[in-house]
Amino acid sequence: MKIVLQNLTKKFPSRNRKSHEDVVAVGDFTFEIPDGKLIGLLGPSGCGKSTTLNLICGLIKPTSGKIFFGDNDVTELPPENRGVGMVFQNYALYPHLTVKQNILFPLENLKGKDKLSKTEMESRALEAARLVQIDDLMERKPSELSGGQQQRVAIARALVKMPHVLLLDEPLSNLDARLRLQTREEIRKIQRKTKITTIFVTHDQEEAMSISDMIVVMKDGIVQQIGKPQEVYDNPVNLFVAKFLGTPPINAFDGKIENQTLYVGEDAVMDAKGVLDQEVAVGIRPEGFILQENGPLCCKLNRVEVMGRDISIVSTHGAFTGTAIRSIVDAEHSRHATGEYVHFALKPKKVLVFNKETQERIYINGNQHT
Ligand code: ADP
Ligand code: MG
Hints:
single chain, alpha+beta, 2 domains, 6-stranded mixed sheet, 6-stranded antiparallel sheet, 8 helices, binds adenosine-5'-diphosphate, binds magnesium ion
């Protein structure tokens, strides 16, 4: 099922005595989610992710804008008629019910023409349980399950009504690191198998990047960018998106464009033909550095960390805006990383330039400065 969001906006009244302006939790969100895809909705805490999901499932009504499932306008439809499965951030299972009873629960409340016979319900519950591989745990109580198993029960409970749309709000946040990794792969598999249009909310960029067909990056209720994970990583539209994606994060420097040349601090690093003189922020991805004896970017060397095939060079620079520059380079070139300073050449595609004031991307068609 295709989902269309049309100028979707949700404002909450301000509770702040000093400012009476409404909080724009979601502002003018327009997006057509293609049928059968997994969309990662990504952004820092408070940016409007949960509000967006709650609007789509109908738990809250938009201040303005519309939501369509396929060609049907569902904006005024109550949640139970939308055919949506939802897993909440705190996916509370009913502690006194068994796994099976938990999964059956949404089916038992079906009314009228949707009402199912007991055998139908049981077979649907078993099918959902099989999908998430908990069919051998049906008689247990939630307290007898691990965190990962409880998580799967919550997903099975969302799947059992065979929803057209699956909404997952930070579904992995209660799991430890290894289980998170494993469970996210499983969510991906289940999504591929069922082809249910799915929105997966997370504040963890790596999680979103790894399993999504497309990601949506939000900030303060406003969509910043939508695209395939790699496209957004390679071509962020502004400094916020550039900083939000990638581990280790992008290295941000103060710089300028002067006489068609890009400077990081006082180091002339690249040509910037045809670009007006201006103050800029320069973001360099960790993989964008090349150790080179006469490279144009000169940094003070702190230490070298060996990571096997690659090494991580930790250094500083007068124009750097964070605490330590992290660059990942081929271990073969480590002989250049000795002494007080290191010199880097830069890979042009990994150097992203932003206007200092607006933080919007400036496209420079640069080669290395010679
Ligand atoms: P996220 O899920 O990305 O962390 P939310 O969607 O929960 O963010 O919240 C977005 C913004 O809307 C926040 O500033 C939050 O404080 C505000 N907000 C969310 N729900 C309500 C509500 N029921 N009443 C007032 N403000 C709310
Ligand atoms: Mg949330």
